[in-house]
Amino acid sequence: xxxxxxxxxxxxxxxKDFKLLETALIHRSxxxxxxxxxxxxxxDSVLGLVISTHLFTRLGDATExxxxxxxxxxxxxxxxxxxxxDICLGDYLKLGSGELKSGGYxxxxxxxxxxxxxxxxxxLDGGFQQCEKTILFLYDEYLVTLPSPVALKDPKxxxxxxxQSQKLAxxxxxxxxxxxxxxxxxxxxxxxxxxxxITTEGTGSSRKRAEQMAASLALKQATAxxx
Length: 227
Hints:
By secondary structure, the chain is mainly alpha-helical. The protein is built from eleven helices and three strands; from the N terminus they run ααααααααααβββα. The chain has a three-stranded antiparallel beta sheet with strand order 1-2-3. A hairpin with a 4-residue loop joins strand 2 and strand 3 (about 200-205).
C-alpha cells in the first residue's frame, strides 16, 4: 500500500486530523464498526453542492433540466470512480480479504464511495471552501468541456419526446424475466410501441437499466420506421 503522504501530495491537501484521512479509506469489509460510510454520506452531499454551484454560475442560461442532466453525468457512480482512478485511490484503500481477492479496489462502487468519503473528510478537516477547491481541482479536466445537455438525455426521455412529437402513444415497459439471486439480479424488460408494431428487449442489473436499453433500441427502430 502506498504512503498516505503520496495521496495528500496528489490531492494538494495536507490533513490536520490524519485520522479523518485514514477513516475515509476504510471499507466496510475491513471494519464494520469503523469505516468510511458516514463520511461518504457527507461527501456525497458536498460534491453535489459544489458541482451544482459551479454549473449554476457557469451556465446561467441553462434550464433546470439541463443543469440536472449535466450534474448527474458528473456525480454518477462511474464518473466519480473515474476521478478516483485518476488519483489511483484504490491503491490506498483498506479492504477485507474477500474484497481484496475479488479486486474490490478496482470496483466503481467502492472507488466512488471512497472518493466521496475523502471529500467528506476534507470538509470536516478544512471546511467547505477547502473541499470545494479540492473537488474543482480533481474535476478540472471534466469541467473544461462540459457535455451537451441534449446528448445526456436518457433513452427513455428521448423516446418519449420523439413519440410525443409524432403524436404517438407512449411506450409500455414490462419486465419479462428476472434471473439471479436478490443481490445479483439481471432484469429483462420489453418496450412496446403498439402503433408502430415495435417491441424491443433490454437487459441490465436493474429494472431501470434494462428499460433504458430497451428504449434506446426502440428509439432507433421508431425513427427508422417513421422516416
